[in-house]
Amino acid sequence: MYLRSVLVLACAALVKSQTCTDSSRIIVQWLAPLDNGCPRTGFSYCLTDLDSGTEFSCHTTNTFTYTSTGLSACTRYLIEVTTLGQVGYSNSSTERLNETTSASAIPDPVTGLQVTHLNTYDLSVRWTRPSNTNCDLSYMICWNDSGATDAEVCHDTGITSDSTQSINITALNSCTDYDIRVASVAGGTMSDNATDTVRTPGSARKYVRGNNASLRLSGVVASERG
């Protein structure tokens, strides 16, 4: 994606700049200022993440271009370019340009997937959004009986900005293995799946005997003593 922008550099010279922006980098190019009797030694290029307030280190260059890499997708950045004057001359005023990185071609997967039993027939699914993106994300949650892959059910959450998400899956069969898949979705593209397989509990009469019975995730019955 190419964006045409305008920067004002040394001695109020008006120059046109070309900016190339993708999901992880910003490339800024500018022309030399007009020769208005202002000797220069180079340019100072500074970058600030406007969403987090993080100020990155400034860089000095003698060229008319600079590339910032390793940036976060869907994030607003402030670019500041200053023409540096020779000894005995002051620097020109700093000129500013706002740019926003684009969404990644493929969003990162969710993290921290947890599936817990609510009761014999219901599960709670909880996950955390990718930490390295500010993009608008929705999530696709799918589940199916491990022995019947043609009976998969999926649910789309719609776009949400919450850092931690959860959904309850209800009316399942007891004592059945279920495959759970969660993927983040951005711009119609889906990430790799975070997955877990759990078994819903059996009836209390069948599986829980005595006072020391317990359950744990990703197993059937952890222990039982009667």
- Helical residues, percent: under 10%
- What is the number of independent domains? 2
Shape: rod-shaped
From the coordinates shown, what is the CATH architecture of the largest domain? Answer: Sandwich
Mean pLDDT score, rounded?
77
User: What is the CATH class designation of the largest domain?
Assistant: Mainly Beta
Order of helices and strands: EEEEEEEEEEEEEEEEH
Question: What is the structural class?
Answer: mainly beta
Largest sheet: 5 strands, antiparallel
Q: How large a portion of the residues is in β-strands, by DSSP E?
A: over 45%
Question: Over the alpha carbons, how many angstroms does the gyration radius reach?
Answer: 27 Å
Give me the number of helical elements: 1
Q: Which stretches of 5+ consecutive residues score pLDDT under 50?
A: 1-16, 205-226
Q: Total strand count, please? A: 16
CATH fold assignment of the largest domain: Immunoglobulin-like
First-residue to last-residue Cα separation? 67 Å
Supply the CATH superfamily name of the largest domain.
Answer: Immunoglobulins
